[in-house]
Amino acid sequence: MAALAALAAVLLDAWLGEPRRGHPLVAFGRLVKAIEARLYADRRGRGVLAWALAVLPITLLAAGAMWAARDASPLLAAALSAGVLYLAIGHQSLHEHARPVADALDAGRLDDARAAVGRMVSRDTAALDASQVAAAATESVLENGNDAVFAALFWFALLGAPGAVLYRLANTLDAMWGYRTPRYKRFGWAAARIDDVLNWVPARLTAASYALLGQTARAWRCWRSQAPLWDSPNAGPVMAAGAGALGTRLGGAAPYHGVWEDRPVLGEGDAASAASVRRALSLVRRSVALWISVGLVIAAFRELA
């Protein structure tokens, strides 16, 4: 039933995309800001407390709702699970953000491409050339394939709807607090580290999926040699394997807050282009199909057993 619920959630996401109004994560964001306003202090302990108050009550509420739904009807529980997972993933959103970048690059509208990729990444985009814009979009698609899709699917498979809720809220807190800035270096420490832990296994499964469905030998080689050089323990494997699978060069220097930062090179082959953005979207889509197919096969074997 869980595999069918996951399939239903992916189909709902493809059909409806993210809700334009009333997304629960918007309300969660307001809650997080209120908790931060009350509890902020430049201490790790306060960050741990704030994380627990933001995430654990909602996760427990989801677990209670699922328990009640299963007690009432397995079909109701499956429908609720599919609805929760639909709200936790953002596969269609990746396409909605990345396609305009590729379309603008194909049409030679560099300023439009810069504006579109600026909605996907945190780096400065005004100084990027066409290849750098394409690289930024491709990196974002590959990394967010894990963060916005596969990690949520993993925790859903492991812990059901409460697992998907736990992961999505923790990942959102990392996006809000997990920065190494003076304000969040200590307070956001727990948010960043917990997100690293929750993403460790999914990131490597995502990287393996990219490798299997792309240029496999090159992807494994890039994963082994380049991922350890990246500062993120999870983004490194995902983007190195993804870049290798695409036969594209990513990484390298990028501007943040007016300063160009040196970053390791990821992948091998041609410079990034509009085509690499589209191939990255295709790679994520095929990986989603692989995960859902594997889940359905495992579910079928369990039923036979």
UniProtKB/TrEMBL annotation:
Compartmental location: Cell membrane
Major localization class: membrane
Entry's Gene Ontology cellular component terms: plasma membrane
InterPro entries membership: Cobalamin_biosynth_CobD/CbiB (IPR004485)
Membrane topology designation: Multi-pass membrane protein
Keywords of the record: Cell membrane, Cobalamin biosynthesis, Membrane, Transmembrane, Transmembrane helix
Keyword Transmembrane helix: yes
Associated pathway: Cofactor biosynthesis; adenosylcobalamin biosynthesis
One annotated GO biological process: cobalamin biosynthetic process
GO MF annotation list: ABC-type vitamin B12 transporter activity; threonine-phosphate decarboxylase activity
Transmembrane segments: 48-68, 148-170, 283-301
Record-linked Pfam families: CobD_Cbib
Keyword flag Glycosyltransferase: no
Database matches in PANTHER family: COBALAMIN BIOSYNTHESIS PROTEIN CBIB (PTHR34308:SF1)
Family listed: Belongs to the CobD/CbiB family.
Primary role: Converts cobyric acid to cobinamide by the addition of aminopropanol on the F carboxylic group.
Name the record gives this protein: Cobalamin biosynthesis protein CobD
